[in-house]
Amino acid sequence: MSHWTDAHCHLQDRYLSGDEQVATNARETLARAYEAGVDRVVVVGTDAQTSAEALAITEIGGPVEIYATVGLHPHDALDDIAPTLFLARKGHPRLVGIGECGLDYFYEHSPRVAQRQAFATQIGLAHELDLALVIHARDAFDDLLDVLGSEGVPPRTVIHCFTGTTADAEACLDLGCDISISGVVTFKNAESLREATKIVPLNRLHVETDSPFLAPVPHRGKPNEPAFVSIVGEFVARLRGEEVSAFRDATARNTARLFGLLPR
C-alpha cells in the first residue's frame, strides 16, 4: 500500500518545556498521521531551538519515517545564526535539508537587509553540505530570485507553502526550484494559487501541511497536522485532473528525490 509524504511540517511545540514533552506530543501526532495514510514526514526547523528539537523528534521511531531540516526563518533574521550553522555542520543521520529560510516582506519582522544576509548564508550552507534548501517566500519574489541568482540555486531546492502567482511559479521553476503546495490551495480566496498549481510539472511538485499552521478546508481555523496532508493532496490531484493514487505516489517520489531519501 502506498502512502502520503508530508514534505514540510512543524511538530515542535515551543510552548512545551523539555524534550520529553515535545517528543510525546509528536508521537501522538505521528500515530494519527499513520492512521490517515502518511508514512514519511519532514520536520522543519526555524531557529536553533526548533532545529535541535526537529533532529530529536527524528529519533522517536515508529512506522512513520521522520527526517529534519535545520534553519533560521526570515522572521528571526536578526538572531545570531552561528548556533544554527553549528548544528547543521555537526550533522545528524536524519538531517536532510537547510531551512526554512528565505524572505518575508508581508510581516517584515526583521529588516530586509538582515533577511537577505541570513538567506544568502543558508544558501551557501546548503551548497557546502550538499543538502536540500527549503525556502519561505512571501511578498518577496523579486528579491528572492535576485538572491538566488547571486548565490546560485542548490541542485535540490523547494519553495515551501508556495502562495505566488503563475508568473512567480514559472520564474521559480525556470531557476530550477521545486514547488510545494499547502492547505492554502483549498481556501476560498486562493484562486490565483490554484491557477499557478496547475502549471507546475508533476515531477517538480510536493504536498505539505506546514502544520500546525494553515489547516486545509474543512479544518481551517483548527490546528493543522500531518494527518491532513491527504486532504491537500487529493484536492490538488483533482484540481489538476490527475488520478489521486498516481499523484500521491509521484509527490512521494519527488520529496524522496528532493531530500535524498530512499524511495518507498
Would you write up a description of this structure?
The protein has a single domain (12-259), classed as Metal-dependent hydrolases (TIM Barrel, Alpha-Beta Barrel). It has 264 residues and is α/β, with parallel strands linked by helices. The radius of gyration is 17 Å and the shape is globular. It has nine helices and eight strands. The protein has an eight-stranded parallel beta sheet.
The CATH C-level name is Alpha Beta
**What do we call the CATH topology?**
TIM Barrel
- Please mark out the parts with pLDDT under 50 across 5 or more consecutive residues, or reply none: none
What's the shape?
globular
Helix content: 40-55%
CATH H-level superfamily title: Metal-dependent hydrolases
- Helix vs. strand class: alpha/beta
The topology string of helices and strands comes to: EHEHEHEHEHEHEHEHH
Comma- or semicolon-separated keywords:
single chain; 264 residues; alpha/beta; TIM Barrel; eight-stranded parallel beta sheet; 8 strands; 42% helix
